[in-house]
Hints:
Blueprint: H1 5-12, H2 19-30, H3 41-52, E1 61-68, H4 83-93, H5 98-105, E2 108-116, E3 133-134, H6 153-172, E4 177-183, H7 187-199, H8 203-206, H9 215-232, H10 243-250, H11 253-267, E5 272-273, H12 277-289, E6 297-298, H13 308-315, H14 331-334, H15 337-349
Parallel strand pairs: 1-2, 1-4, 2-3, 4-5, 5-6
Amino acid sequence: MRYSKILDETIKNIVPASRERMAEKERELNSLLKTPKGLGKLENLAIQLEGIKKDYRPEKKIVVVMAADNGVEREKVSKSKRIITQYVVEAMLQGKSSINALGKTFGADIEVVDLGIDETADPEGKISLEGIIKRKLMETGTHNIAEGPAMAYDTAVKAIETGIEIADIFAEKGYNLFATGEMGIGNTTTSSAVLKVLTDLPLDDITGYGSGIDDRTLEHKKNVIRKAIDVNNGKEKIDVSDAADVLSKVGGLDIAGMAGVYLGCAKNSIPVVIDGFISSVAALCAYRLCRNVKDYMIPSHMSEEPGMKYIIKELGMEPFLAMNMKLGEGTGAVMMFPVIEAACNITRTVRKYPEV
């Protein structure tokens, strides 16, 4: 592996959640006045949270949205043009996007990180990105994966490191429950490409309609992904054993940044919620980099994108929510925040089983 010192140290510092505390929490749950396992997944979640931190309770909640443009958008794989990335990010920064509405509902702050938004798509400068966290690694977003690597290997590693840095910054500010979100036109194409390389699953099974494309565009999208993988397996094959190399060849800055957030949260012993398909691809990349990170990840909903079910299966997870959601931005992940709070309250408020 060609990781950096920061990434290497982060991976080494991620320890498994405490199995001892988890076993103790399971015994406590079994002592409550209820049917054994009667609260199903909620009990499993309570056990997981206890393994992450003793007597865990969410105090400050945040959704971290990684934003970047993707060169593959030029292949017309999306219904939307790349300037939509900026319009949606502007709405987020002004508190007027879907994730803001849900964040406000559940008491979560929203922060957006610019890893590579192509501001040249707005030559007149009419769109305001005031308030964004500036960590731009590529001025106009990634390169077109259908023509070559999305980015240099070192850039992919730096994007992962940036996610770790962002997690560190907000952990230091007292945030102890995270969710991942993303924004970047074309990122269901890059996500499907990454998933294809990591798993070699059939593209027909893992590639979906993304922004709402028609059947003809869907077939074009698959062909673009095939071309991208062929091109990037040219002189030097993609190193499937190295998620950072996969990201550098056919991925995106947003996916790499989210992978870093998962790693950073795990390093800080903080639970982090997975959103939809793109977020779950980032989770898979983080897992391939460090298996222990899984202990800190919480699934939220089953995205409408077909590839997600395969990722969830590899991670050994089962989503809590069936919402038919496919928006991204972290909107599905933030819906888990009240469920997490509920899991934390089970043993605090339910009576113990009486001795008879």
